[in-house]
Amino acid sequence: MGNMGFVGPSSLVYHVHQPTQVLSVEPVKELSWVADWEATFRNRHFFTSRLSATRSPTADRIPLLFNADVALSFVQPLEDDDILLPNGCKETKSST
C-alpha cells in the first residue's frame, strides 16, 4: 500500500480478518432481457441521455449490451438503495 499509488514509499499490508465478509447472496431482481432481433453487426449509438431516470441504482439498470456471460448496463438513479453490491455481493447497510 503506497501513498502515491504504485510508486513511492509503500508497505505490504496483511489483514488478520477479511475486511469484508459476505453474509448472504441472493438475486435482487429476476432478469428477462430480450435480444435485438437484428443479428447484423453494425455500429450503434446509445442515447443514454434519453433514457428515463429510475428509482433503484441496483434493480433498475437498463441493459445496453449483453450476452450469456456479461452485461453492460446503464442507470440514472433518483435515490440510494438500502443494499450495497461490493464485488457483486449483496450486503445490508449498517445504521451507524
Tell me what the structure shows.
The chain is mostly beta strands and 96 residues long. Helix content is 0%, strand content 21%. It has no helices and 6 strands. The chain has strands at residues 2-4, 7-10, 62-66, 71-74, 83-84, 91-92. Strands 1-2 form a two-stranded antiparallel ribbon. A two-stranded antiparallel ribbon has the order 3-4. A hairpin with a 2-residue loop joins β1 and β2. The two termini are 27 Å apart.
- Main beta sheet: strand number and arrangement? 2 strands, antiparallel
Q: Give the helix tally.
A: 0
What is the helix fraction of residues, given as a range?
under 10%
Oligomer: single chain
Q: Structural class from helices and strands?
A: mainly beta
**How big is the Rg?**
19 Å
| Neighbour order of strands in the largest sheet | 1-2
Instruction: Compute the average pLDDT.
Output: 77
Overall 3D shape: extended
| Total strands | 6
User: What low-confidence regions span 5 or more consecutive residues with pLDDT below 50?
Assistant: none
What's the short version?
The relative contact order is 0.18.
Question: Layout of helices and strands, plus pairs?
Answer:
Layout lengths: L1 E3 L2 E4 L51 E5 L4 E4 L8 E2 L6 E2 L4
Antiparallel strand pairs: 1-2, 3-4, 5-6
Q: Notable features of this structure?
A:
mainly beta; 96 residues
